Amino acid sequence: MQRRFHCATNGPGFHELTDQIADWLRGAGDGLLVLMVRHTSASLLIQENADPDVQADLLSWLDRIAPQADHPSMAWLRHRAEGPDDMPAHLKAAILPTSLSIPVVAGRMALGTWQGIYLVEHRSTPHRREVAALFQPMP
């Protein structure tokens, strides 16, 4: 079973996909779910879905690690053709996962109580992101 999920973004942030994916898997049985974001400047992450401060802190941390290319500390960057947010977005995607594997039991993802699946947008401009999903049932 395969599907593609789409997500419209409006700048850096977390976009939860948990419910869309859960609806798709309902009744699917046992197996393995594999997700992959089809972009090089966004990521996928399993993260807390109860306190939005967690997401805000993570975004702040990522910006401290890789600020915009026009920041003086980023003068060493060569790739600037797509704007000051592009190469830092690639750096962030290089340290966060771009694919996830999640066990599925009786048609439900085996996530923890406070876990959700997020597309993490790293670019400043709006994008339409795509996540490829594959559910492989257990024999």
How is this structure best described in words?
The two termini are 14 Å apart. It is built from three helices and eight strands; from the N terminus they run E-E-H-E-E-H-H-E-E-E-E. The protein is elongated. It has helices at 18-25, 52-65, 86-95; strands spanning 2-10, 13-16, 31-37, 42-48, 99-105, 108-109, 115-121, 126-137. The model has no long low-confidence stretch (mean pLDDT 96). With 139 residues, the protein is of the alpha+beta class.
Class from secondary-structure proportions: alpha+beta
Order of helices and strands: EEHEEHHEEEE
Distance between the termini: 14 Å
Counting DSSP E segments of at least 2 residues, the number of strands comes to 8
What would the principal axes of the Cα set say about the shape? elongated
Strand order of the largest sheet: 1-8-3-5-6
Beta-strand percent range: 35-45%
| Biggest pleated-sheet summary | 5 strands, antiparallel
Supply database-style keywords:
8 strands; single chain; 5-stranded antiparallel beta sheet; 139 residues; alpha+beta
Helix-strand blueprint:
Blueprint (H helix, E strand, L loop, with lengths): L1 E9 L2 E4 L1 H8 L5 E7 L4 E7 L3 H14 L20 H10 L3 E7 L2 E2 L5 E7 L4 E12 L2
Antiparallel strand pairs: 1-8, 2-7, 3-5, 3-8, 4-7, 5-6
In short:
The strands form 2 sheets. This protein has a 5-stranded antiparallel β-sheet with strand order 1-8-3-5-6, with helices on one face. A 3-stranded antiparallel β-sheet has the order 2-7-4.
